[in-house]
Amino acid sequence: GGRARAEGGRGRGTRAAARAASGDVEAGDGVAYSRRGEVRIGTVERRDGKTGVVVREMPGRESVKVNAKAIDFNFGAKCDCEAMERFARDAAESAKADALLRGAWELIDEFGLESGEVCDATYVSELMFEDDANAPAGAREFAAHRLLSSPMGGIYFKLKAKGTYESRAADQIDALKRKAEAESRAAKVEEAFLDEIKAAAAAPAGAKPDRDALWRPSDEDNDARVRRLEALEAYALGEKFHSAGEKAMADDLLGKLGFTRSSEGALKTLISTGTWSRHENLSVRKYGVQIDFPEGTAKACAEVLSNEPVDADAASRVDLTYLRAYAIDDAETVEVDDAVSAEALGDDGQIRVWVHIADPTRWIPLGSPLDAIARQRATTLYYPTEIVPMFPLEIAAGPMSLGSRSDVASEAMTVRADIDREGNIMDFEIMPSFVKLDRRWTYDEVDVELDSATCDEGLRLLYKVASARDERRAEDGSVTIILPENSVNVRGATARGGDGDVAITMSKINGHTPARMLVSELMVLVGDVVARFGVRENIPLPFRGQGEPRLMSDDEWDGIPEGICQDMAMRSCMTSSTSGATPRPHSGLGLSAYVQFTSPIRRYADVLAHHQIKAYLRGEPLPFDEQSMENVIEDVGTTVGGAIRSQRETSKYWASAYFDAQPADARWTATVVKFIRGDDLVLVIFDDLGYETVVKLDRGAVLGETLTLKFVDADPHAGSTNFARVEA
Hints:
With 728 residues, the chain is an alpha+beta fold. The protein has 22 helices and 26 strands. The strands form 8 sheets. It has a 5-stranded antiparallel sheet. A 5-stranded mixed sheet has the order 9-16-15-12-11, covered by helices on one side. Strands 24-23-22-25-26 form a 5-stranded antiparallel sheet. A hairpin with a 4-residue loop joins strand 13 (381-382) and strand 14 (387-388). Helix 3 (94-111) packs across helix 4, helix 9 (224-236) crosses helix 10 (244-257) and helix 9 crosses helix 11.
């Protein structure tokens, strides 16, 4: 029978039982059509416009709109669509479907179509269902049509024109089956992976899976998990930190998980699965900040500590241990990188000042492993959660730090300057030295001492020099901006973030006390001296400069209230600083040239300056010519730029988290210091906290006005914190 049907039906078109034309569809007709990638059946309820019909779809009897062009068969008004659906659904059961398709293909291959001939669903249905003569009218044709249109049907038959098929060659079928089996295995792996991610997201805190286990590499999926994690992490960092391909891959995963397809959705997914911590520091990832020291650092430190390097400057180090050297720092400072001494020279009012600077290049030769590590890190980072040092603390707070060994003099680089009453530099000298700390002072202690009638003579002389230098630079055009500083401190988290409970405190720092002015002026003095020396001796150094401020008109300036508002206006007028191997004016400091030299434990640019100056003093070739110095400055500057942005964004995150944790009835007073747009989008500074933020007001304000604000909402990872004005 099968042979006869295969031979007799060769090349036939669709039988009268099913009409392919859709233009004469009427209410009550049973139709087969494609919707959302599947072949479906239903009864036409009514026409809908020129090209559409409304169909009551089986098996759910839902009314759906179908384009008439999507209709493949019209079985007429007498068909039982529900019975046809049941028959086709039974035939589509996996094992049975494969047997039906293979059986039909075998008959056609052996007895039926010639090469290049085509068949249709009606023809194939007679081969598939010859024993189902009592099937509902049209059911066999519909079932065959659904099977032929299915992925499995595509293995045995190739769709030609609409409604017609060509049987495939045996080798094609084998290849397509292998492909389908591989895709089926991949789909199962995919489903298992998605289930794992959903389970991880739903798991309570403390029960999250291990990151490496959840995103494990596997030959089974060709390491797709690893690539998806990379894409998801890049996407979570925001617009500038992912490629179009990473976005597409992340969006695909988020969509399959049923999560929001966005950077915010990626971030929430990473946190909810435990892949990232609740307080994940995105900026560390964005800017490639090196928190941990690389492998081998501890060994390199141990080598330095156990085998003290030869001091290249031993023959020329000047013994200054007779001087009373004071270190002035914050109480928590562990890396002491500068100390100061002073003495009066005579009746003409000149004062000799020594600034002793830590000498890390005494311990870390240029090009050594620890030097390479410091160059890559470029700077010490100051996060609200912790300080991340440039050098390992074993040596930074050890032999590099002044006074770290109380029984041994510390090696230093000392800058001596003779200053007259007007703050002019009359003479200077730079030398490698030995110094011993006489005392460590905190800023608070120095402020108290300077206010005392019995002030320490050394501090008195140092403050006198600092005051004269401040006035000298002001006469030379320096700009002094006095704004409060905000400090955020966090316990219970690290630079990378954390999941635990945290304690966040916020306070205002007065960075313009006499003690801080004293230290700041002496550090600027060193930068002035080193720059003069570099200019005089034609030494390429990491010079820093700043252009003239972009000053506003006198009328604009006069309209700004004196004090904090004018200081903020002046800050807005300042231009960006520049760095390079050649001298350039620094208008903000009122200097013709300037080199940072006083923090070589914390800034690699200072280390570069030390290498150059020390080599020159020894009479050796300079390690860097102008071009190579420019190259290193550029590399280091890029890293430092990322570090500065990371510190700023991290502080914004924790400030946002601080306000988010405050009581609902908390109120703060703040001063309007700048208009951002109009008079209702304003920059304010919180009076008690020194915190700066932009606030959108319900009505206009005036500069210098004091507002009472309440917290509205915050998105810490976006660095967003919103406040609203309330009546006092």
